[in-house]
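Continuing the batch. This is chain 6 of the set; chains 1 through 5 are on the previous pages. Same settings as before, nothing changed between runs. Recording input and output for traceability.
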Amino acid sequence: MSTFPEILTDENAKERHPDFKKALFDLNTKNITAENCNHLIRIYINTKEISYRNKILKLLYNHQYPELQPFFEMACKKERYLDMKVHALRGWAQFAEEREIIKLVDKMKISLAKTEKTTPYNYQEYELLRGKNALPFLVEKYNYASFKELLTQVNEQYERMADAFKGHITTDEHGEIVLLRSPGEGSKMIRDFFDGLKSNT
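Output for chain 6:
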């Protein structure tokens, strides 16, 4: 008996329906087969909901079904957020050699450098990139120089942030958010930092 939800196989299903969202977010990677991964690819391509796309990338990035190779390559180009690009890259790396993905990684380095200038306190993105399911996983598994350089850049930019923005969250090996501080404690640290900036101007 299939454990894949019927609502996700229905092309006419309303993705805003609570049952649709619950069915997608209740899935785990063990539910994915060569037969049903195409339903997730279809949902990914058609949806504008970022959380849906991110969930689908994490559901699929450990699988090696042939149809996923062009999907992951497409997703690497489609996604704007670097952490989601890394999720797509994790899937694509199973099919591609370093020489095939190095141009993408180089573009990510440029984008990352811009992040430091345009959004210098974007600690969430750094933590997602540094999480157990992201760049450290890729470095450990593939040992590519390009992955090591990208992770080094992430860590260096992270370290240049004020301490008030460090150590709030991380992700586990499944890509789930892990709180390292209570929301109240984290908010106070960040609020105190900005209050300090105001008092010095």
